[in-house]
Amino acid sequence: MSSHLNFDFSGTPAVLRDPGSRLAPAEGDPLVSVIIPCYNGEAFLKETIESALAQKHQRVEVIVVDDGSTDGSADIAQAYPVRYIRQPNRGLTASRNLGIRESTGSYVVFLDADDRLLPEAIEIGLRVLSQRPECAMTVGDHLFVSADGFYLASSRKPCLHSSHYEALLKSNFIEMISSVLFRRSIFDEVGDFNTELRVAEDYELYLRIARDHAICCHPAVVAEYRLHQSNVSHNSELMLTMTLRVLKSQTQFIRNPGRLFAFLEGIRRWRKQYGRQLASELARSFTTLQINHLRRKILLLAAQYPQGLMMLLLLRIAPKLSSARNRAAARA
Fold it and tell me: How far apart are CA 207 and CA 251, in angstroms?
């Protein structure tokens, strides 16, 4: 990474400028397409759109792909100078792919309808890619914010300078898709998102790109990831199953010891991460799950992360022991 890029590393959450006050773009600036897939996203869509329209880089087309919303998302989106496209409900992956097909920019950003871009996000990404013409995409950093938009934590993800495919075999170090600026041409080479995947479709795309193309990272904070109860990452069973499926799809490309060790490390990490999450989820909902759902989840835990069974047992026993101690203390 060149030392003269002059990034702002403050990590301060975005203060959105009035999108109606945008200056005329400089002639010759590249057009960037910001694709916002949306399904019943009225709670956060306004902030998301405004963050895309508030970019310092002026040549931005914002494309909102409404995936059959039944709330007020359509009215919110159409109140802004964006391209609004509506389709029957087909899911997040199909919405992103439609956005790619409809985009006219030379670069693409995918912005989920509950997240936000910081004002310099696109400008910084373009600056990096202009200095790294061999790279198909560049990855920045992001923050975590609460449901009401306040700062929670930094991501602390690594800014890697090499071996990106091997790093992705170990884990999805990119974490947030809105921290990525893609060259539009890469989708003509590697294809769109895999519509057979319900989750982890971004992880699969990163692996497909990094396997044969250069990518680069920079440490500037460019996006805000909003944490709330509807985040799909809370579905432990789905995340464990789909993430392992994505990683195992790479087995035919594991052709040297370095990739093999990275692959095995990735299997171990994903099983541990989502296995522990699934055990905790089961402990909380053990008595409320239907018996067939409970059996399926326990069998999955036993197959993929057997250590999680002991964790589940301990989590179930601990509250009972604590309750028994409290009753004994009350009688004393």
Answer: 12
Q: What residues does 145 pair with on adjacent strands?
A: 151, 226
Beta bridge partners of 34: 62, 109
Q: Is residue 124 part of a domain?
A: yes
Q: Beta-carbon neighbour count of residue 125 at 10 Å?
A: 25
Mean pLDDT of 80-108: 97
Check residues 32 and 329 and name the one with the higher pLDDT: 32
* Predicted TM-score (pTM) of this structure: 0.86
Are 107 and 33 contacting, i.e. CB atoms less than 8 angstroms apart? yes
What phi and psi values does residue 68 have, to the nearest 5 degrees?
75, 35
| Whether residue 132 is found in the same domain as residue 268 | no
Nearest to 119 by CA among 216, 23, 2, 227: 23
> Confidence band (pLDDT; 50, 70, 90) for 316?
confident
How many Cβ atoms from other residues are within 10 Å of residue 332's Cβ?
Answer: 5
CB 284 within 8 A of CB 189: no
Q: In this structure, what DSSP letter does residue 186 have?
A: H
pLDDT, tens only, 135-172: 999 999 999 999 999 999 999 899 999 999 999 999 99
- Distance (Å, whole) CA 44 – CA 201: 23
149 lies in the same domain as 255: no
Q: For the chain, what's the residue count?
A: 332
Instruction: Look at residues 176, 207, 229 and tell me which one is the last residue of a structural domain.
Output: 229
Among 286, 273, 279, 277, which residue's Cα sits nearest to residue 312?
279
The pLDDT, as a whole number, for residue 7 is 32
> What residue numbers bound the domain in which 327 lies?
236-331
pLDDT of residue 229: 76
Which DSSP string do the residues of 231-277 spell out, in sequence order? -GGG-HHHHHHHHHHHHHTTGGG--SHHHHHHHHHHHHHHHHHHHHH
Gap between the Cα atoms of 223 and 109, Å rounded: 11
Whether residue 116 contacts residue 51, with contact meaning beta carbons closer than 8 Å, is answered with yes
- Asked, for residue 7, whether it belongs to a domain, the answer is no
Query: Could you tell me if 154 and 299 lie in one domain?
Result: no
